[in-house]
Amino acid sequence: MLHTAHKSSKLSGLMSQVVTRFAPSPTGYLHIGGARTALFSWAYAQNKGGKMLLRIEDTDRERSTEAAVTALVDGLKWLGLTWDGEPISQFGRAARHAEVAHELVKMGHAYYCYCSPAELDQMREEARAAGKPPRYNGYWRDRDQSEAPDGVAPVIRIKAPLSGDIVVDDHVQGKVVFKAENLDDFIILRSDGTPTYMHAVVVDDHDMGVTHIIRGDDHLTNAARQIVIYNAMGWTVPEMAHIPLIHGPDGAKLSKRHGALGVEAYRQMGYLPEALRNYLARLGWSHGDDEIFSTEQMVEWFSLEGLNKGAARFDFVKLENINGHYIREAAPAYLYDVMLATSAEVGRQADVDGLSANKETVLTALPELQPRAKTVLELIDLAQFIYASRPLAIDAAAAALLTPETRAVLRDMAEVLRGLNEWSVPAIDAAMRALAEAKGLKLGKLAQPLRAALTGRTVSPGIFEVMVLIGRDESMARLEDQTSAV
Ligand code: GLU
């Protein structure tokens, strides 16, 4: 399914167009940091009327399974991020990577190195002894090929500049200067003919016509090395924006506990993709003080200047609040589908059955439930009263409201309700008010145990609405379950 196309970027028409790319390594899921990088790359391309390409960096053959690629693609699709053309396989382009490496040798910008592991070890030892960083000393840089030992397959090393500066002119980090003397002649092609990661990325970005690279700032030092290859080939270095990584709320590296999870974990926790998009957009990018904005607004406003230099901190509370906003705003029919899909995905079969069998009732109830939920899972919990089977499971807080005294009041309520001619919110409301008055109680004193008995919880939509939603027979039966149990 992955393609290896785009041999040369010298395609006319591409030159003025913004081309970004998302280049994940398939690890089995789309992690939250990758999702944000993809979102920024996508938003920038959209803003400029350009393209975002998808390159799967699948050179690690053990990890790069078909399932891992599918997980990435699914994660992007769920988040609503689209790319142009087919995903490109980095592994599939190995021959092209080798071709460029050999071209660099021909141009005199790279060379064969025949050093054995033992020689390299010795080199490092000597450097260390001289108080220098342990690295390759350029032994084969200017040596004649005639000195090559027999039967040794060489690696290809790039001739890195020996002096001067390598400057990464970054849209987020500013001008970052690397001293050439600190870069050694790194390997671009291994002795088995496979490219190193550093080299493959450059060749791919060039061939794909990438004009803007947006990625995590853990790649900043790689950028300096990659620039060496661009310069050696005489290729234009793409614009770069290295974004600070996401940290936990305490400022430490993002851990699983802090939210370093795959996007599917967020889906399973009940976050809506539009909420996650909005939240991730704010995590490292800003447009004034705007917290809530549509994806269309984000695309319209997105600029590299809006990317923040400071580390972003992941904040579950903020994400929940944004999610709550999107749940309140969503159309019930859409939420119903998400509730059903989420229940199925997390294996809550009773909810799948209940939601499926009571679609109309759930749709009617949803506008009442939406303001009370911050996640789709909470929404499902809130809807359970509709299809819960009798006798209801009563949660601890609700159980505390069902005392011998309140059960006695519930019995009186049941009697009044049994005598009603009409089962409607106004009729029930009037009858309950009259009963409260006769007993010298506040209406709330009646409503609380009623809610506990009818929903098994202390939170629900208006309890009279609940009674109309589940119907007269079910309401009376649930009430009797609680009153006859005394
Ligand atoms: N495959 C790299 C990663 O997942 C990204 C490489 C790049 O963006 O240049 O971190």
TrEMBL record:
Per the annotation, the residue ranges of the short sequence motif 'KMSKS' region are 253-257
The reply on keyword Nucleotide-binding is yes
Report if keyword Protein biosynthesis is assigned: yes
Query: Assembly state and interactors?
Result: Monomer.
Gene3D superfamilies with a match to the protein in the record: 1.10.10.350, HUPs (3.40.50.620)
User: Could you tell me which PROSITE patterns the record lists for this protein?
Assistant: AA_TRNA_LIGASE_I
A molecular function GO annotation: glutamate-tRNA ligase activity
Organism of provenance: Devosia ginsengisoli
Protein family according to the UniProt entry: Belongs to the class-I aminoacyl-tRNA synthetase family. Glutamate--tRNA ligase type 1 subfamily.
Supply the EC number(s). 6.1.1.17
Q: Which residues form a coiled coil?
A: none
Query: What catalytic activity does the UniProt entry give for this protein?
Result: tRNA(Glu) + L-glutamate + ATP = L-glutamyl-tRNA(Glu) + AMP + diphosphate
- Domain Aminoacyl-tRNA synthetase class I anticodon-binding: where? 357-481
Q: Where is this motif: 'HIGH' region?
A: 24-34
Describe its function. Catalyzes the attachment of glutamate to tRNA(Glu) in a two-step reaction: glutamate is first activated by ATP to form Glu-AMP and then transferred to the acceptor end of tRNA(Glu).
Principal subcellular localisation of the protein: cytoplasm
Subcellular location as annotated:
Cytoplasm
Q: Which residues form the Glutamyl/glutaminyl-tRNA synthetase class Ib catalytic domain?
A: 17-320
Q: Which residues bind ATP?
A: 256
> Keywords assigned by UniProt?
Aminoacyl-tRNA synthetase, ATP-binding, Cytoplasm, Ligase, Nucleotide-binding, Protein biosynthesis
Q: What cellular-component terms does GO give this entry? A: cytosol
Q: What is this protein called?
A: Glutamate--tRNA ligase
Output one GO BP term.
glutamyl-tRNA aminoacylation
